[in-house]
Design a protein that fits this description.
flat; about 70 residues; about 30% helix; about 30% strand; 4-stranded mixed beta sheet; 2 helices
């Protein structure tokens, strides 16, 4: 079923997390990255424009184009 969803709607390609504090980066590396396994790249970068946020990049599917969602981290 997951393969069919990925074919029709795309799937998560990579996750880019922009956050400032070093302790948050360590927490994310130990908790978030293993949850997605080795198939999805999770990278952590410095904040852009002073806003901590996460970008989730999706591949294209037959019914949806490639895109990225952005979520502000509070």
């Amino acid at each position: 079923m997951n393969r069919m969803k990925a074919l029709l709607f795309g799937s998560v390609e990579k996750i880019v997390i922009h956050c400032a504090p070093a302790r948050v980066e360590d927490t994310l590396k130990t908790h978030v990255a293993p949850a997605f396994g080795p198939s999805i790249l999770v990278s952590i970068r410095p904040p852009l424009l002073g806003v901590d946020h996460m970008q989730i990049h999706y591949s294209a599917g037959w019914l949806r184009c490639a895109h990225a969602d952005v979520m502000v981290l509070a």
